[in-house]
Amino acid sequence: MVHWTETERATIETVYQKLHLDEVGREALTRLFIVYPWTTRYFKSFGDLSSSKAIASNPKVTEHGLKVMNKLTEAIHNLDHIKDLFHKLSEKHFHELHVDPQNFKLLSKCLIIVLATKLGKQLTPDVQATWEKLLSVVVAALIFADSENLATEERKAITSVWSKVNPEEVGHEALIRLFIVYPWTQRYFSTFGSLSSSTVIARNFKVQQHAAKVINALTEAIRNIDNLKASFSDLSKLHFQKLHVDPENFKIMLFNVLFFLQLLGKTLIITLSEKLGSEFSPQIQAAWEKFMALVIDSLSRQYN
Ligand code: HEM
Ligand code: HEM
């Protein structure tokens, strides 16, 4: 569970007391729609959002801004239970509204900017850090990532694909691709020696050894799908506190794993229900993407 110090709790409350919720909500949403105009596509029922003027005079923007801020108020008053508090809302944003989770981050950026306009220099780096922590916990709670949401068929798709590949090969190939296609990721591995070309990387024993470690962790995760948070707790701590890995890299690494599975897809004979199809069908990809989202969520726990 995310830990909140007394200072953080006090900081959140002090800032909160200074805010006019309707104003902050309206301004944050207005910025979302103007700065990231593609977000308006989710709000077709709001009528005209095509210009700053239209947005400013749209009563639904104010109304909705207040709804968002009221939910945030609940979070502030229940800091230790944010995940539970947002469960229904995250389900709604995922299943009903189909909101791309990236957008939650955009709205929280807009909220921080609005706080800056309201508080000026009172928004010291410490206050900013505390509020960014609050919003990142809220965003994590809004992202619909729960192993309960994996249907039996989806679980089967994940274990079945994994049983048809050589996991060590997948891990090795994914790590090689990580270093070649996303070369900035090499900076975390200065102890691995030269990673200067594809041939050198492919031959580097430490790369192979490390791939095996990562893949063992993933295999364990597949075996333990309902308990990911606990099994990744130490790894999350290690990557956050000691290795200082930017969590964006987890997404890239797991995308590489998925990409390589997809490459192998044609040669894998996957016999699952008709609903999921065979080979690496879009449905099987969707099941894997959900699983990867769970792994990312668990690995990123300590970052919140
Ligand atoms: C609805 C909260 C981010 C799209 C709602 C509702 C709340 C809420 C409380 C009303 C739910 C209900 O009436 O049952 C939040 C919070 C957010 C957030 C706290 C982030 C901090 C976003 C983002 C988008 C989005 C980023 C899309 C870009 C929607 C839509 C609705 C909705 C389309 C339904 C609006 C309607 O037709 O009334 N949200 N939301 N939300 N949200 Fe979010
Ligand atoms: C170490 C898992 C992604 C950087 C490790 C270890 C495991 C692991 C099991 C070994 C821990 C130990 O020896 O106790 C994973 C998993 C990932 C992942 C499951 C899934 C996405 C990443 C990414 C980076 C990274 C994307 C950086 C771009 C490191 C570094 C070490 C490490 C630098 C220490 C390596 C060493 O010096 O031996 N990781 N990792 N990890 N990881 Fe990750």
TrEMBL record:
| One GO CC annotation | haptoglobin-hemoglobin complex
| Keyword Transport set for record | yes
- UniProt record, GO biological process: hydrogen peroxide catabolic process
SUPFAM superfamilies according to UniProt: Globin-like
Key words, A-Z = Heme, Iron, Metal-binding, Oxygen transport, Transport
Record-level Gene Ontology MF annotations: haptoglobin binding; heme binding; metal ion binding; organic acid binding; oxygen binding; oxygen carrier activity; peroxidase activity
Q: Which InterPro entries match?
A: Globin, Globin-like_sf, Globin/Proto, Hemoglobin_b, Hemoglobin_oxygen_transport
**A Pfam family per the record:** Globin
- Domain (Globin) spans 3-147, 149-304
Family under the similarity heading: Belongs to the globin family.
Q: What is this protein called?
A: Hemoglobin subunit epsilon 1
Q: Which organism is it from?
A: Latimeria chalumnae
The gene name reads: HBE1
